[in-house]
Amino acid sequence: MYVLAIETAGYRQLRKLHTGLLDSLERECRTIVESSGGELLSRSSGVTIYRFRFSGSYDLSRIVSAAWNVERCYQSVERELFGYTICLEQIIANDEEAMIEAIDLLLKRLPQDNGLWIGQNAVTALTPFIRMERRLDLWKAVAPVEGAAVLPAISDFVDGTEALSRVLDAIEPVVNSNGSSEVVLLYGAEGSGVGFLARRAGVAISGVQSIPTLTPVSGSVEPWGIGASLIHHEHYGCVEEYLSEAERGLWQRVRYALRGAWFGTPGEYQPDHQREELLPALQLFVVSYVRRMRQASSMAVMIIDRIEQVDDRVGRIIVAACGESMRSGELLIIGTSGRPFLPAPFRTIEYRKHAVHAMTTESISSRLGELPPKLHVDSSARVRSLTRGRLLHLYHYLWLVERESRTPPMSDPEDSVDQLLDIVIDSLSPVELEALSIACTCAGCLTRDAMSEILVAAGHPSASATEVWSTLIASGFVYDEGPPIPVYESIPHRVSVRLGRRADELDAIARDELYRWFRSGELELSPDSYRMLAEHRDTLVALEVFSHFSQIALLRGEVELLHRLLDGSIGANRAADDPKRRRVIEVLGYALRLAIVSRGQDYDAAASVYSSWQDRISDRTEREAIAQLTLERARYQYAIGNFAEADQLARHTVVLYQELGSSEGGAEAHIEFGRIKLAEGYAGEAREYFALGRAERDNGLAAVHLARSEVLEGVTAYLYGNYSRAIELCERAMTTSEVASVRDWELFSGFVRARVEIELGRYEEAAKQLSRLCGPAHSIGHDKAKMVLNAWHARALSLGGSVRRACELLREQEQRPEAAYFLAEALNQNGDTHGAIDVLERRRPVRDPRLRPTLSARWCNGFDGVEASVGSEGPESIVERLCVAFHGYLLGRIGRTDEAVEQLRICSRKQRGSTLDPNLPLLVFWYSSVLPGTGDARYDDPSTELGRSVKLVQERVSRTDSPQHKNDYRYRNSWNRSMFDVARRNNLA
Q1: Could you read off the pLDDT of 487-520 as tens digits, one per residue?
Q2: What is the pTM of this model?
Q3: Interatomic CA distance for residues 762 and 967, integer angstroms
């Protein structure tokens, strides 16, 4: 261990004369030393001693730099001092007391001469770094040697090795081929250095020093975070420079998906399609990187570390993202593995393998010959026997020799590699060993800076906690990209054994820090960080995290994750060890199961779960759990159309959350109450409850709830006829959803906004809006939404005059009742009445789902979530009624009056809360159109029905705010315009 000792002459007298000077000098020197990895050992009677935990030449140069900077500080004020002596020495002692005693003896031998002295033990090692003059048996430092080095860092050590040359020879045919590129798999036993060889090969091929690397974390329960290391790559900050304008817009939307973390703090970040958006995010990163390298006339290289651990689903995403660039020959992927096979997704493209074999005695001898003689303590044959010829083991053998100045013993040649690794780990300093332990525990969920904070909380100086990662990276214990990940997969066990009880202490400290960040909103909760917090020793913490994690997962629609949470496959929750907490988890778990089956439209399962709810509540159950359960019961009753019961339960939920003082729960309950009141036909009350939900926004309302409340109130305004307010609310909901990456509600609010445009007769604007929405729906694989958006896009084109194009689009899905209705409408518009009738008669009837969706947007068809939000009719009943009514209207046009009248009378007279049905004026108008004006008592009077349809339109006109919107609805809407034309001819308008 190296020490830096400073003795200030006349310290006590100076303390009286220049207290401020000494305090300032000591602070400055301590900052210098700590920033170089040192720490204060002792301070007394004018002698200050710092120690450095030395681990290699990259540390030696830093130590020498610190010593010189300290000497300069003293030199700058030497006129105000009585004198000073600074000494840098290597001390070998068993404890701190012996170390301090050895330093005191050394200082007594040094002359009272201002300057930096080098002790005898350190002279040999520091000769490459410092020019010195000998003064009897002492050495005075003269000047530093620039650029000195002994054992290089691992990345530089790999360069020039025979192993790297062989890897480059294996890759060269792929690089030089004119066709598509291949995946190159480098595989070898642990310690063979395949990870470092892949990185240095990538540097040699591409000419850049940092290669984008995808790294699965061993032991992680969440495979989707594989792209997280890319956000730490230097290209991440300049991705947009190499993208088109359209690509930049998409990148801004999806770049978050690379972060790997799932759940942010309440109210900010609950993306619902992160898994689907990982593909376009990774694709854009790759495209941008390839273009950048093309501009530099270089080959783009990406590395997939430990490729055998890549989940098949994630593997398919990687192949899809990189495939086009590989087929063009512009991207090379290098995979590393401990085994000679690729996961199935990667075997769908061309690949080749290269085994990293052990180094021969001759190649080891050659490599050692390039290093200083100080490291030649063993014969090459024995070095090969100790390291098995594996490159990384060879480096750590040399690292140990440099650090300990001794050769490792070898008691069992068959077990030499394990012995070597054990000895190397035994030589680590406490901060290095504990940093490795934290990296093993937290690599899946924390950055390097966050791990440093845990080290500080564990009692290490901040400088050491920060600098230790540079040491571990340079010495080949952890990789450099992203969060520090241990290179050896056997490290976690070895470190845990050595730390013993201290490992448990570190584990507890890490969990405490995670919880502190979670509470302050600094931690983005992922399945991996949940697993750590779920095992927190405080069962109340574990329960709190379970509740938060489950609710956000429910909002995101992560049903598979919720199942894993409930069956404990993510991690056992320690709250279950406490009988009181276990009862709460059981109730919350029941509420979650009810939500899952309701969301999955499983009527029988939902009914079964609901029927047993009474057994889940007792007087001992905490009120938070009761409130959550009551809310889910209200949602279930709403889902099955039992609005009266849902109303009572929602009221009770609002009261419960008010008593608890939970603004977020209260907001959620108000939104559910608003939906129920809308279903009952009370638009005014519904709007009030949606607004009450948003009033809690500043107190933590989740972004998804805010978006829901805005768009649901927008739907209410649309149904009521206030199109101005509907536009405003839908635009706000679109912004809220886009910022929070809540794609389902972003699409739905945009769709409702487009429907308002159609209602106002602004068909071109509606078509543009719907066309823009189709892209995001496609990118997240939302097939239901895409189908609905395409159908309504075609309808907007048709009503706007592009009938032929609309028919082409609608023919693709004409069996769906909604598309059949729109296609018949377009054909009729084009004069093909018989063709329109034929389409409607050939449509395929679809049964209504027996459950209404509760938390997600509704995409059964375009009337789902809008007209179907009112009353007990399902969305398919609404479409069926429109199809039957339009069929009747068409029959009337070809003279089949009796059939037409019969069908339309039923449709236009059906009571569904007429003031909230935007289609009712149209149905009445169609009915008036087929009625014969003969005075026959069997038929209603057509003028009366026409007048009724006009009155219904006028009522809706009166409810919107903007004069322009009033005029558009009356005269730009093609059906309303036709209605008023007929009404004017009959003197009714």
Answers
A1: 888 888 899 999 999 999 999 999 999 999 888 8
A2: 0.82
A3: 11
